[in-house]
Amino acid sequence: MDPRLNWLRVVALLAAVSSAIAAEAIPSNEDESKVPSYTLPDPLVFADGRPVQDAAAWRQRRAELLELYRSHVYGRTPKGLPRPKGKVLSTEADALAGVAVRKIVRVPLTSDPKGPAMDVLIYLPKSAVGPVPAFVGYNFNGNHAVTLDPGVPLARSWVENRKETGITDHVANERSRGSEASAWPIGRILARGYAVATIYYGDVEADFDGGWKTGLRGAVAKEGPAHVFAPDEWGAIGAWAWGLSRALDHLETDRAIDARHVAVIGHSRLGKTSLWAGAQDERFAMVVANESGEGGAALARRWFGETVWRINTSFPHWFCGRFKDYNHDVPSLPVDQHELIALGAPRPVYVASAEEDRWADPRGEFLATKHAEPVYALLGKPGLGVAVMPPVNTPVGGTLGYHIRTGKHALTAYDWEQYLDFADRHLKPAKAR
Ligand code: GTR
Asked: Does pLDDT of 108 surpass 80?
């Protein structure tokens, strides 16, 4: 036989083996003893090895890190996107049994009047005497799901079918009204002196692979739904993060809101989104990531809970194409998530976990926050103030905050109480506390 044929066989066999390895699932792990040793990239060392020794150098390193996140993890937001003004659709001076002012604002996301637009639901404490600090964040099921307030219209965009909401045809219905209210204790937030603004994330892009075709990313792509994404173009998290900044643009125009003191908050995939929004847009005065897990606050290099392979396989639309190159090679990622938290510096960032939410890797979330501390220290800010992970239900922190509470994966009243306390320390003038 022609010896070249044998060589061809060997090459073909090697190719088959390597693609089999590449396709191999990286299962989740919930055994701490199996977590491999790893070396984290140092946020205070430039890619070329120079140390970051002062605040001015940190600004440059910050730009370098943002660029790494854009090209390897979340993708790049297209330049020069239009930012049309929001339009107040309605104002109710006597909402929520008289304790709130409710506003509903439609913010177009493109210059096409028929293009995607998001509805921002705002509640302000009626008793406020001046502009109030605010929390802004996405909800999962529609603005009507965060409250029983009948004045909030049902979401107009595609919604997930869920048993709890009784939705079976991707169209919001009355039964789903209030279904997410436990994650949004609006009365309590207002009573503590904050406004709350929330948006249905599906207004920006429906959360499924292909949802982009009818969302913001499809609307701004030159070829529309026929667009083929380059490896560093934005994923859904990038698009959602962009929407949060557009919500802040609107809040800046509302005199009832102290727009210099707005916290961006999100749970789970929306916590990943709030971290990325806060990293890019320094107008957010505080960032809260509730149980944001893989691709959020959890260290990717720890093999615990969800893996990079797993998240890219289950949710191929969330991150940029290049992130998939790391499915089987996480140690080569040029960043890890402590650096995403550090991009919040010197602003307050709160990361939270839940004991039973092992999928999100609570220890990995704590450690990422801990490893962001050197950047805060360089900028003269206290970090967590603890050396080891605190016990459950014991919030800790200075400019970085952290807690792990008992219970499951959810945004709860307990979590909000900690965020409100943290916000009192960071977003309110001392005399107002
Ligand atoms: C899970 C996903 C997590 C987290 C969560 C959520 O299925 O694996 O990364 O984002 O969804 O958003 O609730």
From this structure: yes
pLDDT higher than 80, residue 214: yes
The residue assigned the tokens 């309590």 is 188
Mean pLDDT confidence for 398-414 = 98
Pocket test for ligand 1, best of 359, 409, 412 (most atoms within 8 A of CB): 359
CA of 256 to the centre of ligand 1 (A): 34
CA of 268 to the centre of ligand 1 (A): 6
Sheet holding 349-354: strands in order across? 87-95, 100-108, 117-125, 195-200, 132-139, 257-267, 286-290, 349-354, 400-405, 396-397
Give nearest CA residue, ligand 1 atom 10. 269
pLDDT digits over 13-23, tens only? 665 555 555 56
> Which stretch of DSSP H or E encloses residue 137?
strand 132-139
Averaged pLDDT score across all residues of the chain: 95
pLDDT of residue 350: 99
Active site residues: 268, 409
* Residue 66: closest CA among 241, 315, 262, 228: 241
User: Which superfamily does CATH assign the domain made up of 4-432 to?
Assistant: Alpha/Beta hydrolase fold, catalytic domain (3.40.50.1820)
Cα 161 to ligand 1 centroid, rounded to whole Å: 16
Residues with C-beta less than 6 Å from any ligand 1 atom: 268-269, 293-294, 306, 311, 314
- In ligand 1, the atom with minimum distance to the C-alpha of 267 is 12
Question: How many helices (H) does the chain have, and how many strands (E)?
Answer: 11, 10
Q: Which atom of ligand 1 is nearest to the CA of 295?
A: 9
Chain-centre distance of CA 214, in angstroms? 21
Residues of the chain above pLDDT 90, percent: 91
pLDDT in tens, 130-169: 999 999 999 999 999 999 999 999 999 999 999 888 899 9
In this prediction, residue 164 carries a pLDDT of: 84
pLDDT score of 428: 85
Q: pTM here?
A: 0.94
Residue nearest to atom 13 of ligand 1 (CA): 268
